[in-house]
Amino acid sequence: MAAAIRAAAERLGATSDTARLDAELLMAHVLETSRSQMLLTRMRDDAAPHAAAFARLVNRRAAHEPVAHLLGEQEFYGLPFAVSPATLIPRGDSETIVEAALEHAAADARVLDMGTGSGALLLAFLHERPSATGIGIDASAQALAVAQRNSAALGLAQRAQFREASWLDSGWADALGRFDLVLCNPPYVETGARLDPDVRDYEPASALFAGPEGLDDYRAIIPQLGKLLAPGGVAVLEIGAAQGQAVRALASRIGLYGGAAPRYRRTRPGADSHLGLGKADSTLYLWPQASGARVTLPTGSSSDIAVTVRGFGPVYLAQNGARELRQAQSRKGSRGHMRTGCKVRAAH
């Protein structure tokens, strides 16, 4: 077994940055066991009975087919999610959307997941918040079938609904009502951008590309948030690493203030509790602008700030180091110096 895995890893080295891991996962899949169990108990087994099946998977991986497609599932937020070519593969980087939602939304929030795909964002949030309920929408019936399968497998079918809908269609949300939390990981890749073959050739283009600037779907989504969000609600959107200024500008035109914070990830349970900065895309946090309220930030400020103005709820989150993200929240009506040392003035 060990020799077969080693040979496969050497072959996959030209295809994958995680060749050894890929080979181990594929062999464990063939053996119908977990990777950890295989490493502990099966490495001295004879690989010959499984050679043909393993070789087929290795050949497909060598052609850049994603490991998640070969396994049929991907872990996200500590949960197993079925995936298919009709859905984006949930990525660990997007766990920060769930983290932000858990931090800023009520425990019994009513949630809308726009472009739900596999259902990963919605279902991960509902798994952590037993009193919350939600609706996931997607334009792809095939993707919705995967999301419904995941909802049932995770025991969340009673609290999660899925509907075929597109935010590009007029009236798509007329019967949905308002939500305490809106989640969205929309297409935001520039048309013509160079992507790895693993993504370009195997994941749905409709979930990736959004016009020459990657902003077409934000231009459709953001103007609708005002009607989707309940008073005090929050929207958490994933954005491209260089799109923060453009998306904030779109939000400000309709009375939403937002800011991009560098992506961070919390370690999973059992590991040290700390925040670590990453290099992936950012997460955009949006709150409805407090009616009649104004938040003024110093020119050139780049501090992490969440300001609450006289009971209206958070209205602004500026950008910089994610380590202060959890610390930079003011109490109702507060003003003055935050932990980051940046002075904030809230006025009517």
Helices and strands, with pairings:
Elements: H1 2-12, H2 19-31, H3 35-41, H4 51-62, H5 67-71, E1 73-76, E2 79-82, H6 95-104, E3 110-114, H7 120-128, E4 133-138, H8 141-153, E5 160-164, E6 179-184, H9 197-200, H10 216-228, E7 229-239, H11 244-252, E8 256-261, E9 264-266, E10 275-277, E11 282-288, E12 294-296, E13 306-308, E14 314-317, E15 336-337, E16 343-347
Parallel strand pairs: 3-4, 3-6, 4-5, 6-7
Antiparallel strand pairs: 1-2, 7-11, 8-11, 9-10, 12-16, 13-14, 15-16
Description:
30% of the residues lie in helices and 22% in strands. It is built from eleven helices and 16 strands. It has helices at residues 2-12, 19-31, 35-41, 51-62, 67-71, 95-104, 120-128, 141-153, 197-200, 216-228, 244-252; strands spanning 73-76, 79-82, 110-114, 133-138, 160-164, 179-184, 229-239, 256-261, 264-266, 275-277, 282-288, 294-296, 306-308, 314-317, 336-337, 343-347. Helix 1 (2-12) crosses helix 2 (19-31), helix 2 runs antiparallel to helix 4 and helix 6 (95-104) packs across helix 7. Mean pLDDT is 76; it is low at 259-283 and 287-348.
